[in-house]
Amino acid sequence: MNAQAEPQWEGAVNARVVLGNIYRMGRSEWLTTTGWHQAYTEGIRTVIDLRNPQERHRRHTDPQVDEAAKAGITIINSPTEEAGHPEFERLAVPYMNHPRMYQENLEFFPHRIAEVFHQIAKAEGKIVLHCSAGRDRTGLIVSMLLKLARREDLLEAQYEAALRGINEWHKISNYKHPYESYIEDKDLIEPLAERLEALDEFVDDLSVEEFLLGEGITEPEIKEILARMGL
Description:
- There is one protein chain.
- α4 (110-122) crosses α9, α5 (137-148) packs antiparallel against α6 (155-172) and α6 packs antiparallel against α7 (185-204).
- This protein has a 5-stranded mixed sheet.
- The protein has one domain (16-228): Protein tyrosine phosphatase superfamily (Protein-Tyrosine Phosphatase, Chain A), CATH 3.90.190.10.
- It contains 9 helices and 5 strands.
- By secondary structure, the protein is of the alpha/beta class.
């Protein structure tokens, strides 16, 4: 998938390199104090949290973290959707958890998606993108980044790794997810194939650069985003 070593940040779930200086993971609350220090040492200076504000809280199963460990890392909340939007919520049941919903997310909230790219363009240091699982809201942005970079060859591997990564977490997590649970590997084959097909359909029909320019992202910003991916 990527020649770079995958991040080893204590407590991180579903963490991996996307391309260049852009990383992805699941909930930042899973990181321990040591994990935050390790991320900083690796060069992480910006974390972009794609969740809605009401999701951003510590669970009783999350580690207690010394807030000083986050010093030097800017944490930005840039949601990919608007919580409580009635039309989108009728489509995204129980939430946006599948690539077949990516196009609807883009059409309902283009300004939200563009803002994420604006934040990527102006961020300092290495960047971590994350939502809750690190799979679909993160997957939407990552897929657009890879299409922009003309690295469609990485798309399916990135998504499969994210799907399998959070699935493995469900196997060992002491937090009971209200909607998802561990799926045996033999039972994952069909839903994975279906999700990858939906992902390919989304990306095939999308011109990311045209979308971004139409939403007010400038050409210098696009060049900066590409530079962050080593291009």
